[in-house]
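Researcher: Structure prediction, please.
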Amino acid sequence: MPVMDGFEVLRILKSETRYATIRTIILTNYDEIDNEIKGLNLGAIDYIRKPVNMESLLIRIEIHLNLKQAQELLEKENLLLDQVVREKTTAIQELFEKTRNSEILFRSIFNQAPIGIAFVSESHFISYTADQIPCINPTFEKILGRSKEELDHIDWAEITHPDDLDEDLDHFRKFKSGIIDSYAMQKRFIKPDGSVIWVNMIVAPLSLSQEAAAYHLCLINDITERKTVEAALSESERSKKTLLANLPGMAFRCSCDRNWTIEYVSDGCYELTGYDPETILKNRDRFFHDLILPDYLEPIRKESLRLLDLHTPLRYEFEIRTASGRIKWVLGAEQGVYDEHGNPEAIEGILIDITAQREQEKVIQHINYHDFLTGLHNRRYFEDSLKKYCHAEHLPLSIVLVNINGIRLINDALGFAEGDKMIIDASGILRS
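Model: Predicted structure follows.
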């Protein structure tokens, strides 16, 4: 890019909230570890190293898609959970005020609440009030793995995970000083057996009576399982980053329209085509199919539509013209994305640069069918040609045999170098 490099792009993406949901993958060489670390620190979610195994690449792309969906579900769940907990907190407080003179109703609701509830005075849990009203419900005991009697003699800071204690104490000081009305945080408690449990905790004021004026309310909800899933997703995402960092090409998603409108394209687009992804995205400045050489365009389109209807993946090889005018061979692999009724919504796939492989194939083909000394077609080419043309539609067929007399005498008298020279000269005459 003429104005900025990839790291500057990452800085801009990281600094502006409108780009917060964009997932960025950086492409590096095998030995560019410093660039990988720098890119990840600047907000990239993954890195790809060259070269990449095709099968593992597809797996990692699938992981990324699953991770994105899981992350969206988790975010929705978090919002819903916070809303539910806060609503329950408000409801419980209102209920306490309405039913403070009805101990039976209070005990029933308190004991059956699906979240942990406890009264706290300063840094200590309160098991019972002076009127023997329970201040810690069964769910709270179950989550922490401790009875009311045990909690009655415990400072909550003693069973808070050390890594979460400073943040909790800071919030609590602001809460007690009146700077904030309440606070919520995710934290870890240590159970009696030494295991750790994650909770979503809300601390809020509580005013039920003159006696309870010094109390505050602590609500907790067990989120250990969700945290375990998040950790697994994070590890999967890390593995995916490593896989995608080695992709020698680009990943894409396009619409099923005639123009193959690009909805997503990875950063590998620039290295493969010479065009910045932004110029191809949404066909902003260039249609992607304009890059494909005309001889391949329509056959690919027809085959893609046919296999899309059959719900079958498509693999194909074709040539593209890059921004610099260079011709490259590309291997494409794609499959359809369908709605719940089986109707195609989009096409997702990858394009891999196989130009080097094609060039090697040409070299091997040339070696296979040409004589090393003269450059003329060899005996294998002659025999394969006979198989191809010795059919009725090609007859009559003429074959010319040329013999260089005396070549052995020259080899014996003047050496093989002179004999080879005569063969090369003779081949030049034949070629002309």
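Model: The CA atoms of residues 232 and 238 lie 10 Å apart.
Researcher: Thanks, that helps.
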